[in-house]
Amino acid sequence: MASETKHLVLVDGSGFIFRAFYAIPAMSSPDGVPVNAVYGFTNMLSRLLKDHEGQPIAVIFDAARKTFRNDIYPDYKAHRPPPPEDLRPQFDLIRKATEAFGVPAIELPGWEADDLLATYARLTVEQGGTCTIISSDKDLMQLVRPGVMLKDPLKQKPIGEAEVEKKFGVSPAQVVDVQALMGDATDNVPGVPGIGPKGAAQLVQEYGSLEAILDAAPSMKKSKRRENLIEYADLARISKQLVLLADQVAVPRPVEELHVHPTEGESLRHWLESMGFGSILQRMGFTRKARHPAAEPSQDNVEEDVASAPQAAFGPYETVMTTEALESWIAAARKAGAVAVDTETTGLNARTAELVGISLATEAGKACYIPLCHEGTLEAPVGQQLDVKAVLETLAPLMKDESVLKIFQNAKYDLTIFRQAGLREIAPVDDTMLLSYVQSAGAHGQGMDELSRRHLGHTPITYDEVTGKGRNRIAFTHVTLERATAYAAEDADVTLRLWQVLRASLPHQQAVALYEEMERPLISVLADMEEVGIGVDAEELRRLSDDFARRMREMESAIYDRAGREFNIGSPKQLGEILFDEMGLPGGKRTKTGAWGTDSSVLDGLAEKGHDLPTRILNWRQLAKLKSTYADALVKLMDTKTHRIHTTFQMAVTTTGRLSSNEPNLQNIPIRTEEGARIRQAFKAAKGRKIVSADYSQIELRLLAHVAQIEPLLEAFRLGQDIHARTASEVFGVPLEGMDALTRRRAKAINFGIIYGISAYGLARQLQVPQSEAKRYIEAYFERYPGILAYMEGVKEEARDQGYVLTPFGRRCYVPEIKAKQAARRSYAERQAINAPLQGGAADIIKKAMVRLAQVLPQSGLQARMMLQVHDELLFDVADEDAEKLAALVQQEMEQAATLDVALSVETGIGQSWSDAH
């Protein structure tokens, strides 16, 4: 091989195009053509040429979607959606970008880019050279060997044999065997059902290859895995053919010709200017003639660039009363390529609210309101409005037009409103609430009014200003059209302007992956789950309510006996008088109103000191809450049409990224109490169906081991040991064999307490031991695991320096009180900072799993629906005959949702009720 081609750089062009498209906000050339992916690709290529000056470089593209693999397995990649409309015109421009820089662009019909990369890598090594493939695609990791490595183009991180083995658990040469066993839902590679990455790696480690595994399967211990290996052996072999890259392709150009050809400078500058890529021109030393207003956003501070531009006036806006006017706005939306949409309704519950009107905005200051069900007043009656059904039919083609982006603030609410009204196909969708949330969770609220004040310097008209307050409030249907238009159209206008700011700032906050891979696709996933709901047994709930009422009456009698008289147990004032004035219990503190404090922390403290009455009050309160919040409320909240409970998931409330739910809140049902189990017993599947529960096991502890790199914990998880027993053995010096339950319970309390930044006082209360003893436990724990203490101190310092902490997946969790002067508030913020990366990381993982499952379930052929998420648990409704298959599929997908230094573990259960399955 010639000396000048000793090191070949190959760019996975097709793989990079999609990453660039989703990583960079929408932008267009001076001619109005979308160019965000072109910009990202050009930026990468110009830097690559600088870093590898004088070395041979080639960009490899896919020539077509159909390849020889489709002949082997027709369903291969069959369900992949077509590329987004905004991306399609950019494919050709990216090839022209490659030509403009004088870099060879290689493609070959019938073959994937990966096959060409594999062949060029082989040829390079055989000729005595080395090769770097610019890609992070896991499918290319099988090519890594001496002389061949990968490099992530965004993270600039080399991927060698050690990194591949860390990801897959096997050598690069064995990656195809692991992939053949586990399959790949994204590409429709079937694999062997029930075998995930961990199981596949273990099998390959033990037997060496796929064929050896399949040969050994009949002699394996009887199990479902053994049966599947035998039954699906042929599919596994087909899967290996699909994932094994072909490295004997007759490449269109030999390695020796893959040279960068010097380009004429004026020609390259002309091309960059035609795209409007000013920052690249400047970086490459060209002088730029002029900046077109539609060209790239400032890459130094996109948000400032957008927000500092002169703002159009907020109004006046148009009231749409004719079909012709509506069609004119639809035409404007198509021309703009993006439209902000907002709905006005009769209530906040999207399942029960009715549509009153729709507002659209196509550019800043250009918005309208389409009234549909306004009644007006006697003084100001409303004239003839457009028919609701006719308007929705007219809007439907626009709403499902893939070339027009629909922008919402809290999209899930509006999408549900439209679904209820009969308009179901709405895509693609952006959500300004979530665009803000992934960049600033915990820093401030995510409501439109607050975001408008913060990012636009504008205070929108409030709902109260339009409808009044209290007794004087009128329904929105009675608001005059003039006022309704000013209010509703402004909401759409503000939403569009917020999108321009927040979309542009997304890559600079390094939040693109969070938004595109988790939050954005989760909108429709959660809307579907809310629509599915979960079945409840109303009679069971009534029996439960009656039983709770009877037990509460018994408790009340005992409470009155201890207190010496009857009083209103639910009255904090009367309870305080009983406890501190009449009984004279110590430790009472008065609130600002002068009444005694009787919250749970006060009662807990008294109960721990052995006082009987506070203990009974706490038990009564818990039962009263369960009765009112669940046993009684669930019956009232049951949908009379579906006979199911349809909770509402809130996507942008918590600091850590966790979902919450309301009407009803199903996140707070006690997990370990008998009463909580009885409430879950009332959630039931219909006849002929089952509930499948899938729950991540000890996910936050696994994340702690991963982020803090605690080797004993990592080892315990890898070996499948009882993590709490292992911790007890490490900390207290007790042998694993024959460990007593009390010692293990103490270790468990520390393990989980550490995640929440537990103090010696808190641990002492939990274990009911002296505070000095609890302090010794924590000190022994940190002495044995110094890495955990270092992690905790480091994350607190990170929060103080930055104001936020990061989850392992890059989510920012802001901690505003981290520098509070008041010690109690500051200490609470420090505990938040310690826990947020772990709880937030767990939230990120289950969101990834939900998105994966929403893609896989429709392709599975199983009669199953995802219906509920509660922290680390997912619930599914499934036909009896598909329950076991679903459990295996869900376990596999959830365990593959993320790659940590310890394997994720999911426990599944099947039952007629939630309690049976849990």
TrEMBL record:
This protein's UniProt keywords: DNA damage, DNA repair, DNA replication, DNA-binding, DNA-directed DNA polymerase, Exonuclease, Hydrolase, Nuclease, Nucleotidyltransferase, Transferase
Keyword flag Iron: no
Domain annotation 3'-5' exonuclease: ranges: 317-507
CDD domains: DNA_pol_A_pol_I_C (cd08637), DNA_polA_I_Ecoli_like_exo (cd06139), H3TH_53EXO (cd09898), PIN_53EXO (cd09859)
PROSITE patterns xref list: DNA_POLYMERASE_A (PS00447)
Enzyme Commission no: 2.7.7.7
DNA-directed DNA polymerase family A palm domain residues: 676-882
Record's catalysed reaction(s): DNA(n) + a 2'-deoxyribonucleoside 5'-triphosphate = DNA(n+1) + diphosphate
Start and end residues of each 5'-3' exonuclease domain: 6-261
Family annotation (PANTHER family): DNA POLYMERASE I, DNA POLYMERASE NU
NCBIfam families per UniProt: pola, PRK05755.1
Function according to Swiss-Prot or TrEMBL: In addition to polymerase activity, this DNA polymerase exhibits 3'-5' and 5'-3' exonuclease activity.
Quaternary structure and partners: Single-chain monomer with multiple functions.
Family: Belongs to the DNA polymerase type-A family.
Protein name: DNA polymerase I
Native source organism of the sequence: Saccharibacter floricola DSM 15669
